[in-house]
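Teaching assistant here, posting this on the class forum so everyone can see the example we discussed in section. The complex has two components, and the goal was to see what a joint structure prediction looks like when all of them are supplied at once.
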Amino acid sequence: MALIAGCAGAPPQGEEVEPSARYAFWRPAPVVEAPDPAKVVEEAPAEAWRAIDPQNLLVVELKEGGRVLIELAPDFAPVHVANVRAFARNGWWNNAAVYRVQDNYVAQWGNGDAEVPLPAGVVRRPPHEYHRALEGLAVRPLGYPDSYAPMVGHAQSWPVGYDPEEGRAWLTHCYAMVGVGRDLAPDTGTGGELYAIIGHAPRHLDLNIALIGRVIEGIGLLSARPRGTEALGFYKEAKDHVPFARVRLASDIPEGERPSYEVLRSDSEAFSRYVTGRANRGGDFFKRPAGGVDVCNVPVPVRKRPA
Amino acid sequence: MALIAGCAGAPPQGEEVEPSARYAFWRPAPVVEAPDPAKVVEEAPAEAWRAIDPQNLLVVELKEGGRVLIELAPDFAPVHVANVRAFARNGWWNNAAVYRVQDNYVAQWGNGDAEVPLPAGVVRRPPHEYHRALEGLAVRPLGYPDSYAPMVGHAQSWPVGYDPEEGRAWLTHCYAMVGVGRDLAPDTGTGGELYAIIGHAPRHLDLNIALIGRVIEGIGLLSARPRGTEALGFYKEAKDHVPFARVRLASDIPEGERPSYEVLRSDSEAFSRYVTGRANRGGDFFKRPAGGVDVCNVPVPVRKRPA
């Protein structure tokens, strides 16, 4: 991309500016012969993939049938992820339900985690794991501007925002990411109440709430629900809820039956080609590649693990 | 916001960069005492609102009950909007249906517009109205970087990308925006087949397809549908389709019965305060205002017209 004189030249809020004012943050430089992202993924070598540790895979079975698979991110929210594992191992969510679906925002589930006895191993007031140290994290910079963070990219195949000045990195609220519901106080979310993003990325939640993972299969079972009619999309009656049959860690499921997935490594050359392809969509349909992409429009490729 | 030395310093795709590399596109400068966007809208004076011309309001009634209201944008895609009006006036979509719902992407409807006789007044091969002249358009710059366009903002209360260098502006593919389905050739979309965005903004479609408006009421009737199981989210069987009862322009509905809405003027002082509030969410829940926002997270406020 090429930068234009005055890339800093965004006007203060409210100041009137001639639309012809000759400033811009950057200028996209579309790549006309970019690779087809689907083909890049299809042809990615075995070593470009990493298996999802069964300890990091939450298996949610719905009473109506179907399942939602959630990959956990212990390196970003270790205490909350440990809580999630403890909740799962204690059967905390068996018979829990989705009780809130708000259009263009979130689907939320649980069975209450405040003022009730919690299972052994659950920390009631975890630290607010809204960010982690940038140090020790190998980030692949996306290479395009972001509307929220100084820098964005991918680390360990997760979408991240980061700030080299403050030395911090954090997961971003992209579609299908899973976060910890909390009350007003930052330390009131245990991980017992979770939500998945089902609309345009609400990035304003970044650095305000702990993200613990992402839905890698079955997001449609959450996003296609009727929207709740109460404030914030809560369902009016229990009969509208979407009940779970049981929720387990893949590691607690016999090996023969457990789902096994892998994700494309964000430090692989294939991933770089994938990003370039996502930022420069071509083929017969697209007439003008964008020459840019936002971090939430680079969904990390996931596949069933080859036998 | 403050810019850091080397705001241009995004790495070329694929180049490995130390995460601690001290560059960034910009640095958000959160406003701690920002206005509450909901309160700003509530208190906006009457002159901050513009009525939606009934000629620019498409009323879609579903057979199952409920309606979807779509505001049209004639100043951005005049020929396609004229086509849409002609289709509506000729009852083209009565008994049409939603036949495609793809998760995190689009809901699409129509009844075919290729190789069939079209109603009087419909231009079969409209020009590709993917952008318009920036000249003559009063844009309010958003004031934050965008991952796709040199500049973004709002014009006539529509979200736009624009490029002062090329002198062009275009509508952006934000949630609930409505576009024209087309075949591979740019001039194959008449406006008879339309889609609404129901997921994270697919901004890569900007400048590749004509946007003709946005859903201002009833988006949940499209977004909450079961996802189609065929490729691209097409429904497998006609029984899965969501049939329309009829589709009319509000101007063709008797005044007493016609819906009447208004939108917040993007050139109003209230809108500037609203943007600042959206970019710096505060109150009791948010612990750290973002200090930035993307153009698709600034939904233009719409309300029923006060009697």
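For the discussion questions: Chain A touches chain B through 94 residues (CB under 8 Å). Residues 37-115+125-301 of chain A form a domain with the Cyclophilin fold (CATH 2.40.100.10). Think about how each of these relates to the inputs above.
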